[in-house]
Amino acid sequence: MRTRLTPDTGVKVKSPVRGAGLQGRQSMARAAGECGVRGSAGGSLRIGELAARSGASARSLRYYEQQGLLRADRDANGYRRYGPEALETVGRIRELLATGLSTDAIRDLLPCAQGGPGLVLCDVSCGVLERQLAQLDAEIAELARRREALATYAHVMRQRRDQDRALAAMALRSA
Questions:
Q1: Residue 18 carries which DSSP code?
Q2: In the chain, which residue ranges form alpha helices assigned H by DSSP?
Q3: For the chain: N or C, fewer Cβ within 10 A?
């Protein structure tokens, strides 16, 4: 049995399945590698329909496609057609982006994030999350170091200002 990680990010993202019908609620029809997620096929959505239903802009959808996060088929006229799983995928992409993950990390996580809320706990998802947490810890440590250096600098500047004021006050008294 797989464990699902379901973060409460505090970010409100339009539900990817609201109003999507049975087909929109079904899992993504793509191989999910180690996570073992299975999907199904069904009807399709044009980019404007997917944008309206997912709350993402058409520009964002094209960007997700460019980054390899979302797949679209093309009609004979070149229009994009997205499968019913795209609604769930876009919702998941937006959730993961809201956590601060890069599109590269999201590309690695998406196969473990299909078929319901959260992530399927597997070596892939654990590795990606651990790397991202380590990167955040390093960034936090660097920010703390920079804050301390800036606080020290500000403290020295205040001391110099106070010394200058004291010297100026003594100079005015002796004049």
A1: T
A2: 21-25, 47-54, 58-66, 85-98, 103-109, 123-174
A3: N
